[in-house]
Design goal:
single chain; about 90 residues; alpha/beta; 3 helices; 3 strands
């Protein structure tokens, strides 16, 4: 199985944090362009719920979150609702 994993910000320790809008702008257009053109699974690599939700709306199929949904407290709730709507 192949997966394209897109991330717009570094999650390494001590990396500078970028705002949601910049991270969103780095990944969402690419995901939106590639998703309808490929059968390869697409994931979004982010800790931020707003970026993850936008990427899923753009065509990403799952979230790769190194914080296990602990960085951004809204994540677990909206992600479970989104998964339920997609099922």
């Amino acid at each position: 199985m192949n997966i394209l994993d897109f991330g717009g910000a570094s999650t390494r320790p001590d990396a500078d944090t970028i705002d949601d809008a910049d991270e969103f702008a780095r990944v969402t257009p690419l995901i939106a362009a590639l998703a309808p053109e490929t059968a390869t699974l697409i994931s979004i690599d982010t800790r931020k719920s707003a970026v993850a939700e936008a990427a899923l709306d753009a065509g990403a199929e799952f979230v790769n979150d190194v914080s296990a949904l602990t960085y951004d407290l809204p994540s677990p709730g909206w992600l479970s609702r989104k998964a339920y709507r997609s099922a």
